[in-house]
């Protein structure tokens, strides 16, 4: 009599959300797994996303791996439970420099890193000083900037008034 246990185990684990199936133990990054995770994560409820992120954060803390970091980076725009974006970016930089990835996984990782940066996450500390200087300069130039904007608005209003036929009222 044949035993179907080994065949049913992956199906059972997939049905349970895959939380207990350690795909990342080999240390490699599988682009298909990441894309499948991304598709599944997008369709989860906010509560299920938060649970998944908490599990991934715990897993990443226990055993830092690039695949866990990539999953957290994928999940971060949809759930704050996926951790601190700056920390995720630093972890990605550190792990990706030590672990080899195929070009597709590397492309996905770089895309996710840029997405987090574009969303305003992961601003480095050395850039914080630069931002403070820019903020001080902007505050100093603020009245001048506001006057220029006001003048531009007035010019547009004048152009609109001039282009209106004389019979139309305001």
What is the terminal-to-terminal distance? Answer: 89 Å
Number of separate helices: 7
Total E-strand runs:
0
Q: What number of structural domains do the residues give?
A: 2
Category from helices, strands and their pairing: mainly alpha
Order of helices and strands: HHHHHHH
Q: What characteristic shape results from the CA principal axes?
A: elongated
Whole-number average pLDDT?
75
Query: From the alpha-carbon coordinates, what is the Rg to the nearest angstrom?
Result: 25 Å
Strand content: under 5%
Oligomer: single chain
Helix content: over 70%
The unreliable regions are: 1-27, 125-130
Largest sheet: none
List the helices and strands and how they pair.
Blueprint: H1 5-15, H2 31-42, H3 46-62, H4 66-75, H5 85-98, H6 103-118, H7 125-163
Helix pairs in contact: 2-4, 3-4, 4-5, 5-6
Short account of what is shown:
With 170 residues, the protein is mainly alpha-helical.
Written account of the structure:
By secondary structure, the chain is mainly α. It folds into two domains: 96 residues, no CATH class; 46 residues. The chain has seven helices and no strands.
Descriptive terms for the model:
7 helices, single chain, 170 residues
């Amino acid at each position: 009599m044949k035993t179907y246990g080994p065949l049913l185990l992956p199906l059972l684990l997939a049905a349970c959300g895959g939380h207990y199936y350690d795909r990342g133990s080999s240390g490699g990054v599988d682009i298909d797994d990441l894309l499948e995770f991304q598709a599944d994560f997008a369709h989860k409820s906010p509560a299920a996303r938060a649970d998944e992120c908490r599990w991934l954060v715990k897993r990443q803390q226990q055993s830092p791996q690039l695949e866990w970091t990539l999953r957290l980076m994928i999940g971060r725009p949809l759930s704050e439970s996926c951790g601190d974006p700056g920390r995720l970016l630093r972890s990605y930089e550190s792990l990706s420099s030590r672990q080899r990835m195929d070009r597709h996984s590397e492309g996905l990782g770089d895309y996710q890193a840029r997405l987090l940066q574009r969303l305003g996450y992961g601003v480095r500390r050395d850039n914080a000083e630069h931002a403070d200087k820019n903020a001080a300069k902007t505050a100093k130039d603020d009245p001048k900037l506001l006057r220029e904007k006001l003048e531009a608005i007035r010019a547009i209003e004048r152009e609109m008034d001039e282009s209106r036929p004389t019979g139309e009222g305001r």
